[in-house]
Amino acid sequence: MRDLIKEAVNNLDAALELRKIVLKKINEKKLKESDIVEVVDAVDDLSLEEIQKLGSNLRKFPMGCDLIEIGVGPCSSSLTLTQFIENCILTDYMGFPIHICSYAVADIAEKEGLNPIDVLKMVLENVDVPIDIDHFGKYGPMRFPKEITHCYGDCYFKGPPFKGCPRDRIHKRLIEKEKEHANEFEDWVRLASTVCINVVEEQGGEEHAAPLDEMEVVAEAAKKYGKGLEGIFHIGDGHDDLITGIKACIDLDVDVFVVEGAPFNRAKDRLKVFAKAVAVSRILVKGGVVATNGAYEDECRIGLRSGLNTILTGFPLNHHGYMCGYSPGTAKRGNFGLRRVMRIIREEIKAGNVNASFIDKDVVKAIALGNRFLNGNIYPYSIGGFYLGDAHWACIKESNLCKKLNVNKTIDDISAEKVGLIGGRYISWAIAEKAEEAYISDIDSWVERATIKILNDNGINAYPCNGDDKKAVENSEKAYITTFIPNIALKILDRIRDKKVELLI
Fold it and tell me: Which superkingdom, per the lineage (predicted)?
């Protein structure tokens, strides 16, 4: 794969082939540690500029997810129940997924005389966006003493290198408190959209995370209920630690990689290594989504330029509020991380450093509608060696929004005839798979070409139209506008004006 990685820096076709090879090995359970080492070493040989190009290429559809989003932590043990719920409502209004620190929810519940699961249910009554749960162990929400729940982020404030907690208080747990609500364990997983596990114990971070065998229990529960699984690992030394963390995530069949840098980035050239960690993750992550839960401002920027999809942040008093977007000397408890991260992402996109779009509620709704149209037959379902949808699709599938929405027709209503498809992304893949012949037009010439190749490689009769929507219509018995974003779909319909053309919305 080394030569292919080098070629993929400047060649999208090579990048597509690279991802196909990796996904095949992952699906067949044949990706070995030697493969991970080869990828890490090959990316390490590249310059910083080349790493950024590689990661950006691999973020492009259909090799990865070409959306940038923010995951928001609204909770803290210091908040009242009312403050917490209001933070969730505001996050939902913005359309960002909610990252639930389950220990904080349990602390809030205890203050109110409630069960932890009752507070989670209150969140679900008030929001439509996906719910991601973290700090979750084999008994359910982890519980920590006050010196941890009210930690001021000394390690982030002081900066690298990480040498354990400066106050020697990680990773103490109140196990007996956790056991009191162990009967709620499966309900938490059942109600969530995604679940986080932390593999840093495997990287030598015993003082910072739960044992890996406990994370295996959580991972198995997530898979049992069809929930997305996120794996958090430290960058560490940028080589051996990176390899160990990624291997642990792959062994646990993780969908999303979550990279933690900042004080947990001990590399000498920390910006190049952060970029490398993101680009390597882009190559090796199963579900096509790469996130960070810990990155100083300069790491956030270099990560976005290197293929990052998601930055985790939070409201004041939530510990994620300082873990991303701030720098040593300013990263501390009480920071309002959400607004800082939004500014960083906006600036990087505006400057042309990021080849992706900032996700909003319209896009989230479109993906949810796409899920309903496909009857949920999305990732990890695959066509031609590539997943139909990415981990975002699976996450949104498990949200209240997806459950509430209805569509006029589903994939089952599409007849097997010659179809014209305006748009070459996942919806068109599913329709083409069912059709006798498919004529596909996309405004992005490479997306159209990649879609045709993937479908043809799977024995599907699909033909390119070189971005000519009218050609797709003329060659078909029925044509469909495949986007579920209303204003875009209506503009296309107004431009074509042919009785054969239908909206799917």
Answer: Archaea
Neighbouring-strand partners of residue 198: 232
Query: In DSSP terms, which residues pair with 382 in a beta bridge?
Result: 387
* Mean pLDDT across 239-250: 97
Calculate mean pLDDT across residues 26-34. 96
Question: From start to end of 412-461, where are the E strands?
Answer: 418-422, 437-441
* Res 204: pLDDT: 79
Which residue type occupies 263?
A: P
Contacting residues for 364 by C-beta, under 8 A, at least 6 apart: 95, 129, 396, 401
The dihedrals phi and psi of 49, each to the nearest 5 degrees, come to -60, -40
Pairing verdict, β 136-137 and 131-134: unpaired
Q: State how far the Cα of 159 lies from the Cα of 468, in Å rounded to an integer.
A: 53
Query: CA-CA distance, 199 to 192, in Å (whole number)?
Result: 20
**pLDDT of the residue at 374:** 96
Q: What is the 3-state secondary structure (H, E, C) of 226-287?
A: CCEEEEEEEEECCCHHHHHHHHHHHHCCCCEEEEEEEEEECCCCHHHHHHHHHHHHHHHCCC
Interhelix angle 81-94/102-112, nearest 10 degrees: 140
Q: How many CB atoms lie within 10 A of CB 445?
A: 12
User: Which pLDDT band, with edges at 50, 70 and 90, does 168 fall under?
Assistant: low
C-alpha distances (whole Å) from 7 to each of 3, 17, 274 are 6, 10, 21
- Cβ(176)–Cβ(139) below 8 Å: no
Cα–Cα distance between 135 and 151 in angstroms, integer?
15
CATH superfamily of 1-358: Aldolase class I (3.20.20.70)
CA distance 424 to 450: 9
Cα–Cα dist 465/86, whole Å: 49
Q: Where in the chain is the domain with CATH 3.40.50?
A: 363-503
The token pair that represents 237 in the structure block? 């030394």
CA distance 138 to 249: 18
Query: Which residues of the chain does CATH 3.20.20.70 include?
Result: 1-358
pTM of the model: 0.96
Task: Name, in order, each residue with C-beta under 8 angstroms of 274's C-beta and a sequence gap of 6 or more.
Answer: 235, 259, 261, 265, 295, 299, 302, 303, 306
Q: Cα 212–216–217 angle (5° rounding)? A: 120
Query: For the structural domain made of 363-503, what CATH number should be given?
Result: 3.40.50
Residues found in the chain: 505
The alpha carbon of residue 466 and the mean position of all alpha carbons in its chain are separated, in whole angstroms, by 31
Which amino acid makes up residue 471? K
**What secondary structure does DSSP assign to 304-328, as a single string?**
HTTT--EEEEESTTSTHHHHBS--T
Query: Which residue bears the tokens 């949808």?
Result: 389
